[in-house]
Amino acid sequence: MKIEQCDVVIIGAGPSGSVAAALLLQQGRKVIVLEREQFPRFSIGESLLPQSMEYLQQAGMLQAVVEAGFQYKNGAAFVRGDRYTAFDFRDKHSSGWGTTYQVQRANFDHLLAKEAQRQGADIRFQHSVISVDVESEKPSVVVRDADNNEYRVEADFILDASGFGRVLPRLLQLETPSNFPVRGAIFTHIADGIAAPDFDRNKIRITVHPEHCNVWYWLIPFAGGRCSIGVVGETEFLKQYQGSDSERLHALVMEDPASCQLLKNAKWDTPARAITGYSANVKSLWGKNYALLGNAGEFLDPVFSSGVTIAVKSASMAAGVLQRQFAGGRVDWENDYAVPMKKGVDAFRTFVESWYAGDFQRVIFHENQQPEVRRMIAAILAGYAWDESNPYVADSKRRLNTLEEICV
Ligand code: FAD
């Protein structure tokens, strides 16, 4: 079998893989990225958070993203019945970017991959990683290309950025179940035809189901009069809806009077898709000769659009640890990578749990809200879940519990 060598092999060219590749190239590393699909390819996860802009900038990709003409985004709006509350991410506790974009991921991921290639990344599309050896002195992966040829890539380190493919968690038996109930999503893209003058295209719109507080819809406007629309609920709940995924999604959306009115001129021109059981966890985010990035590690839940931000943050942190490792310094992957990474993910988790219990919904729709507390919550919703100057990060569970008790 043919053997190739590099410094770091990256599995997957989604946001975490492309950003990691660019950052390692900046350090002068030889990187090979192996990507199972041909790009552009569909992916879910279309509403970015402003915190992600910092890592796109670090990776030298920001200008290309800004110039691509994606829908500008400055916040998140929440709707429940006749209640509406909007967070403007420019008015937030943490410093840093307050705006970002809503993106068709096929275009966005392709753009990031092309940016990584422009910087010198060797990205091999339609090359799937099928096995891995992390125990040998030089870790390696076996790759199968589109013509069924197999070859081995040896490296000093492996980054698994394979997202829902979860290559190393599967091959190394690292998977552990998520604590969340099994939920699913049904979603599509539509020509939204929204004419309502008060509709804010610059914000993701999250609507709570009129009867079930643990079922919610997303409406993510894109540039050009289209949007992504989806519904999330426990799989047992979604099973009650019969027919094609398009019929099920349409029936669910029409149950919310405000969405029904807002989308009265919409053209449902794209077949819906469904995904279930996407929440996942692992025993460890690293091991001998490897680390897991983005969704290949833990995936929480889509409600606060945190996935891509976590993905590119993890790429940046892992690239920093690798830089010290390659320079011969002492690194401790647990304390330098896994612990700080999980700190932010756990802050998001507190908010996700509270959302599904209905408590966070009570907080954000409450009539009397302190502006400073709202700015702290806005910072987390904007992705600044690692900023320990925010009490809702540093002590998220206790602070949020207290707030929930006040907002009865
Ligand atoms: P991915 O983007 O999944 O990329 C992984 C890549 O690895 C893929 O291109 C895949 O083809 C490749 N790969 C897989 N297996 C192999 C293999 N064996 N060999 C080689 N390559 C392989 N996030 C947000 O930020 N905003 C949102 O609004 C949002 N909404 C979501 C809605 C739903 C319903 C769900 C389920 C998720 C949502 N997310 C959202 C999360 C988002 O989809 C992910 O967190 C994000 O895509 C993770 O990026 P990644 O780079 O880790 O992995």
From TrEMBL:
Domain FAD-binding as annotated: residue spans: 6-165
One annotated GO molecular function: FAD binding
Domain of life where this protein originates: Bacteria
Alphabetized Pfam families for the sequence: FAD_binding_3 (PF01494)
PANTHER family named in the record: FAD-BINDING PROTEIN, SLR1998 PROTEIN
Entry protein name: FAD-dependent oxidoreductase
Organism the protein comes from: Glaciimonas soli
